Amino acid sequence: MTDLLTQVLLVEDDDALRASATQALELEGFAVAAFAEAETPLRLLTPDYPGVVVSDVRLPKLDGLEFFQRMRAIDSGLQVIFTTAHGDIEMAVGAMRDGAADFFTKPYSIARLAHAVRQALRQRALVLENRKLRAQLDGETSRATSVQSAAARRLEAITDEVARTDADLLLRGGPGSGKSHRARQIHERSARSGRAFVTVDPGLFANAEADLLLYGRDPSVALSRSGMIERANGGTLVLEDIDQIPFAAQARLASLVDNRSFLALGAPKPRSVDLRIIATARDGSVLAGNPLAERLTGITISLPSLGEMREDIPSTFRRFVSEFEREFEREAEAVTEAEWHHLLTHSWPGNFRELRMYAQNLVLGLTRMADTGEAQATGSSLRDMLAAFERTVLEDALAKTGGNVGEVQRALSIPRKTLYDKLGKHGILPAAFRDN
């Protein structure tokens, strides 16, 4: 565990010193994110930050001691190493008394600083590991420390509250806001946890065998098979994007909501089921006259956009990066100041889905290639670069529209056949961009 942490958050307002220290620490094997001021790093630090801070004592707008106190308010277990000019030694000593890990006077030896950073990283790893073990012993989940924004805390509280009931409900939110993920959270925190969790995508109803897939075929008929509703018995059935389900199918599903029974193909009579129904719909979708909505809006939860939970972007982004590092079996490069600026200031219209794609591209090195023209340096042809750009445009459009091909077609102003040809060329599946 102690050898896994390599992240260093460097704060130094002297441009030349910041550049040389960054390069030297990177040569020592650390992943360095460097900043000229303290305000941005304070927005990035979270209680689960897997690294250490190396900071000048005297900074513009915010002196080292105040910076240190604000960092300790975020997490008292953060490891902070200060660098200081001769005249600021007293301030650095004061920080040491308050719990700073070490301090170095300028000019300092990079070898000695690197040694101190390694020691601080080992200590940080122990702190995080101990917290993890305590949480496991106490039966806690990590979500209590992973959300910071008021909107996220409210959503967590509401999730816990509705999970204790068995009532049907409707989740509303923008594209990529995590409606399906929230439905699963409610299921896993409920008394039905461990039982079936079945999701019905509205695209199912375009299938000629939609009724067979959903309702199944009765055992009394040849080639009998269970349907999705029967498989959800005892658990939770999620009806996604109910505004996109055909009206005839809505009416039949409304009967399921009312009676908790369904009629399989070829069955002589309806079969009873015990299940909870959670529906989802996009913000702004018209639900008036929708038979399902009329029955499922008794409890409606509106999911906040990512823009309303900006404090949670750093920790959520790190979680996504970790997931893709495991999936692709490669370590992401340290996030640059420009990339952190993008993360913290971008409007994220595609919400969590768009953020997740950005994390994926970072792990694959695609963000650097797009920003610096690195593709050309690696010998990629113009055709390859244009293909990569086209793929990025298509994926961004799908992320922002939640995989709605019609909206993508209108946004990009291209014929539907051309759009499908390009999606096929790049192997892009619109369904992968719908809430999951």
TrEMBL record:
GO terms for molecular function: ATP binding; sequence-specific DNA binding. Residues 145-364 form the Sigma-54 factor interaction domain. Keywords: ATP-binding, Nucleotide-binding, Phosphoprotein, Transcription, Transcription regulation, Two-component regulatory system. The modification 4-aspartylphosphate is found at residue 56. InterPro entries: AAA+_ATPase, AAA_lid_NorR, CheY-like_superfamily, Homeodomain-like_sf, HTH_Fis, P-loop_NTPase, Sig_transdc_resp-reg_receiver, Sigma_54_int. One of its GO terms (biological process) is phosphorelay signal transduction system. This is Sigma-54-dependent Fis family transcriptional regulator. The keyword ATP-binding applies. Residues 169-188 are annotated as: Disordered. Gene3D superfamilies: 1.10.8.60, 3.40.50.2300, Homeodomain-like, P-loop containing nucleotide triphosphate hydrolases. Residues 7-121 form the Response regulatory domain. Pfam families: AAA_lid_14, HTH_8, Response_reg, Sigma54_activat. The keyword Transport does not apply.
